[in-house]
Design a protein that fits this description.
82 residues; mainly alpha; 73% helix
Length: 82
Amino acid sequence: MQFQAQHDAQAGNGTEPLTTLEVLVQAGSLRAAARELHLHHNSVAVRVARAEAALGYGLGETVGRFRLALALALRRLPDNPA
């Protein structure tokens, strides 16, 4: 996951916001996500702020992170055949 997340974030292929959010959920904190993505924590904070504006809710609290984790899981559901 780490290499793929780093590759997607650097490739500029339109997956940067989604990759950042996926890593944020898995890492559990902004600084841990920044380390995983090999970015400065301020860069990740800017990406998260953009995502929060687009989503319409904050990701700094447990409820927001849960909503995000659920949305990401539901997004992956069709990719995993039962």
